[in-house]
Design goal:
4-stranded antiparallel β-sheet, 12 strands, 6 helices, single chain, alpha+beta, 293 residues
Length: 293
């Protein structure tokens, strides 16, 4: 493990106060002292994730739910399934509607009112992951062609914001979808009405398991994985790689900032493949440990 303040090893008395003062005045320079030693102020190595935990089925009123913690960053995802008419242009498909809420409760950087820029960008990122990864085929959500389909409302609430919201939301989405049980629905031919059998339920057909891995870029060259909020603020850019279990690249999300060389991008992809294995193992273990409803 790396030391917590490589810049203050030789000082005696009051070194903690001096380090804290230096961090306040020159946060980036303070950070660079750690990066030179290939570590970070919280004691992690550059390629090390924070402790990750997942709890599945934590909201009794939802059709599927999951709570994910990535260090202090805490996100809960609840899924509600409702009936809707299939879209006119795709009569054999249902809908998946994600919405991310970043309330003032989770961080002083967010305000009450309509969704801010980051919440909207995160919702769009999750919508893109659903589309690009084909985690669920929308055809699987059709109950009766042209008549009835499922719409899955995936609501995310951030309870504690400390960076890397994209990884936490993607993980929470996957875990919550794997927790969903939908009742059997048939259309009565005489009345044309839907009949729901709550005694017969089936899980969703999860076709792919997308996992996001985010990096912050420092000084255009140094990559660190799973950045905290403070690290995101100091970084010159961020990049998120989404992979599935077949090692297929589902998406690369890079909102501006410093560019990446092909070699650096390849480093990110290699690390993302390893992270996928870790997350998938964690989900499988939790699902095995809980009894089916």
């Amino acid at each position: 493990k790396c030391a917590r303040d490589p810049g203050s090893r030789s000082r005696r008395g009051g070194s903690g106060t001096m380090a804290a003062g230096f961090k306040t005045v020159e946060p980036l320079e303070y950070y660079r002292r750690f990066l030179k030693e290939n570590c970070r102020p919280d004691g992690r190595e550059l390629g090390e994730f924070r402790t990750t935990t997942v709890n599945i089925g934590s909201i009794a009123t939802a059709d599927g739910s999951a709570l994910v913690k990535l260090g202090n960053t805490t996100v809960i995802c609840g899924i509600k399934a409702e009936f809707a008419e299939p879209p006119a242009e795709s009569t054999n498909k249902g809908y998946i509607v994600p919405n991310v809420d970043l309330p003032p409760l989770c961080s002083s950087r967010f305000r009450s009112g309509p969704p801010g820029e980051e919440a909207q960008a995160t919702s769009q990122f999750i919508a893109d992951v659903i589309e690009n990864s084909e985690i669920i085929m929308k055809e699987d959500l059709c109950i009766a062609n042209g008549k009835l389909a499922w719409v899955l409302y995936c609501d995310f609430i951030c309870l504690d914001y400390d960076g890397n919201i994209l990884d936490a939301c993607t993980f929470a989405l996957l875990a919550a979808l794997k927790n969903v049980q939908l009742p059997k629905v048939t259309i009565n031919e005489e009345t044309g009405l839907a009949e729901v059998d709550l005694k017969q339920t089936n899980p969703l057909n999860i076709r792919k398991h997308p996992v996001a891995t985010s990096f912050a870029v420092f000084d255009d060259t140094i990559l660190i994985v799973d950045p905290m909020a403070e690290e995101e603020d100091l970084a010159t850019g961020t990049v998120t790689i989404v992979m599935d279990e077949e090692g297929r690249l589902c998406s690369v999300h890079k909102p501006g900032g410093s560019g990446l060389t092909a070699a650096k991008l390849q480093d990110c992809i290699t690390r993302a493949v390893t992270r996928h294995t870790e997350v998938k193992k964690l989900i499988d273990k939790v699902i095995k440990s809980i009894k089916p409803k």
